[in-house]
Amino acid sequence: MITDTLKVFVTVAEQRNFSQAAKLLNLSQPGVSLHIRNLENELGTKLMHRSPKLVKLTEAGEILFGKAQQILALYEEAKEDIHMLRDEVTGALFMGASFTIGEYILPRVLAEYAQQYPLVDVQVHISNTDNILQDIRAGKFHIGLVEGNVEAKDLKVTAFMKDEMVLIAAPDHPIASEKNVDFARLQNQVWVMRETGSGTRAYSDRLIQEGGLAVKRSFVFNSSQGVKEAAACGLGIALLSRWVVRKELESGELKEVPIKGTKISRDLSLLQSKDEPAVMAVLKFIQTLKTNVQSLYADF
């Protein structure tokens, strides 16, 4: 089909490299070259300047690139509409998720979603909140799932559930046996934290700032799993989502340290571009997410 050739052309144009495009498309490099050559013969013009290291579009190629993207998008939309006539949900669902959601909440939701809609190709990228925001704006994902306060007037932001943050420490940590601690007791402690740009890190920073706490030393990890393991090994105290540490709290590997008069909660939010067209695979995922919220709460 002509759409296959256009997809090859667009991929080469995006990658600016024939061999890289071939890898992404699971084609041989000669096969990719044949598609481009046939397309140039059909249109009667050169579409690309080729060199061993780089591919550059000609003026005609630039025109075709923009139109080809539109054609492929319309073709996918048409396929989806046709499948809907048969009550089938197909296509691709690309989403980004922050670490807490992507590693501890999303797998539960996806298990049900995949069972209901097995024809959807789901791809999940896990990163920190700031990176997911940037990728949504760049159009890399259909949706993003992030934690914490999100300032993004250019995006559609919908809170879908609440998350509780808890202060945790190793069982043999000096403050682990205390039923309640005040901020004075948290002075000059060693902290284990997420990296800057993480939704979880924002809440650690806020707690330290609002409590006027002096930090003796801090260790920074770029995953909640790393923070949790480090705290369990006695490296320091940490503020994490209850979702992240609930199994370790139940087993006694970690201890929750309540802070007197302080309860920390945050929104978990769904991000979408305001310009993103309604895709059935996305709509059905959002529906699955919302119907699963109550059962997720029930796990606590």
TrEMBL record:
The keyword Cell cycle belongs to this UniProt entry's keyword annotation: no
Keyword Transcription regulation: yes
SUPFAM superfamilies named among the record's database cross-references: Periplasmic binding protein-like II (SSF53850), Winged helix' DNA-binding domain (SSF46785)
Pfam families noted in UniProt: HTH_1, LysR_substrate
Entry keywords, A to Z: DNA-binding, Transcription, Transcription regulation
Similarity-based family: Belongs to the LysR transcriptional regulatory family.
Organism of derivation: Paenibacillus albilobatus
InterPro entries for the chain: LysR_HTH_N, LysR_subst-bd, WH-like_DNA-bd_sf, WH_DNA-bd_sf
UniProt-recorded name of the protein: LysR family transcriptional regulator
CDD domains: PBP2_CysL_like
One function term, GO molecular function aspect: DNA-binding transcription factor activity
The HTH lysR-type domain, residue ranges: 1-58
